[in-house]
Amino acid sequence: MHWLVLVLSGAMEAVWATALAASDRFRRPRPTLVFAVSLALSMAGLAWAMTALPAGTAYAVWVGIGAVGTVLLAVLRREERLDAARAVLLLVLVGCVAGLKAVA
């Protein structure tokens, strides 16, 4: 259960990072609200997951999921391009995150 919460918290990190960029320095109300809510959910989930998982591993997994998710959201929104090199590096990052989960 802790791993599931950690994965969802990592997804929320991608949401808050995307909303933060869209908030235009907190001048746009809707993205600012999405940022605040998703940030709170992401941090609460990470904190709860760390009660049963090693802190370093949990944090690395959370950041990895958030980083990959943020890039994928930007690609889906056509704000960034996904070339072959970036795709390979994202796959390596996912492999590292999976490896951390496997050995924890």
UniProtKB/TrEMBL annotation:
<feature type="transmembrane region" description="Helical">
    <location>
        <begin position="57"/>
        <end position="78"/>
    </location>
</feature>
<keyword id="KW-0812">Transmembrane</keyword>
<dbReference type="InterPro" id="IPR000390">
    <property type="entry name" value="Small_drug/metabolite_transptr"/>
</dbReference>
<comment type="similarity">
    <text>Belongs to the drug/metabolite transporter (DMT) superfamily. Small multidrug resistance (SMR) (TC 2.A.7.1) family.</text>
</comment>
<dbReference type="InterPro" id="IPR037185">
    <property type="entry name" value="EmrE-like"/>
</dbReference>
<keyword id="KW-1003">Cell membrane</keyword>
<feature type="transmembrane region" description="Helical">
    <location>
        <begin position="31"/>
        <end position="50"/>
    </location>
</feature>
<dbReference type="Pfam" id="PF00893">
    <property type="entry name" value="Multi_Drug_Res"/>
</dbReference>
<dbReference type="InterPro" id="IPR045324">
    <property type="entry name" value="Small_multidrug_res"/>
</dbReference>
<protein>
    <recommendedName>
        <fullName>Quaternary ammonium compound-resistance protein SugE</fullName>
    </recommendedName>
</protein>
<keyword id="KW-0813">Transport</keyword>
<keyword id="KW-0472">Membrane</keyword>
<keyword id="KW-1133">Transmembrane helix</keyword>
